[in-house]
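Section 3.1: Structural characterization of target chains.
Under the original work plan, the team committed to producing a structural model for every single-chain target entering the pipeline before any wet-lab resources were allocated. The record below documents one such target. The sequence was received from the expression subgroup and is listed exactly as submitted; it comprises 302 residues.
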Amino acid sequence: MTRTISFAEGERRLDWLKLTDAIEAGHRLPKAEIADVFLYRGRDTMLNRSAWIDGLGLLVKVATIFPGNPDAGRAVVNGAATLYHDDSGTLAAVVDFHLLTKWKTAGDSLLAARRLARPDSREIVIAGAGTVGASLVAAYSAVFPNAHFTVWNRTPAKARGFANAHGIDWTEDLEPAVRRADIVACATMATEPFLKGDWLRPGTHVDLIGAYRPDMREADDTALQRARVFVDSRDTTLGHIGELKIPLEAGVLTPDYVIADYYDMDCMARTSDDEITLFKNGGGAHLDLMVARHILDAVDAP
């Protein structure tokens, strides 16, 4: 019987820490086979992503990103996700797209923070006052329950509204907030770097989420050069997303500058309290597959 999992049903049964444990466990299985198709029309994007992990299952996820949608009262990101049984290829579940995207995106970054951020991190800056930013506040609070959050957005009114809705602080000036931060998480639609490496203090963990196209970046070259750099997947980041693709092609970085991805889980670790760590959250259908399987297991658990 095919399950249809709604946003509300999933929200009632999911837990951030158990989710990150499931993502880590998924990367101990045989490496995923993945295939992506990207289609573009101006600023609009369609991503057709599929993955197969032997022993876990198969997934196809289609995401459409239309930045102009809010002008008509619609969400920027939409799509659909289907999960298939590994042993038969039959349809196991249709998972609400927004549920899966929320928990995959923030859970991806949270796993990195559990391994790379200092455990005593208290000051967390969120750049971007959108849906992902809201998920990050919830996710990071699960690991850093005493954290103080500050949100920044290019449009101050949006930052103020976000802060009021989530009970956190906001700022119009990103630089001083970053200079105080233990964790800086960026979830914007920026195409030009706005996070300056010179602002980062020793011990900071940087989480870059927003860039998903070859022409998008959130952090400058200095941030990358000052940090120990990690990614969720070399296969879905280095040659596809401007955050790393642009500096690699310019010779600012070389591929071996990226220390590890989640398939090198034991190397995803901080080595000192003073080092700057930087994680690029690139996503990928293999992560959607791991999370979708976890969601199905969670909602069907007694």
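Residues 4 and 94 are 5 Å apart (CA to CA).
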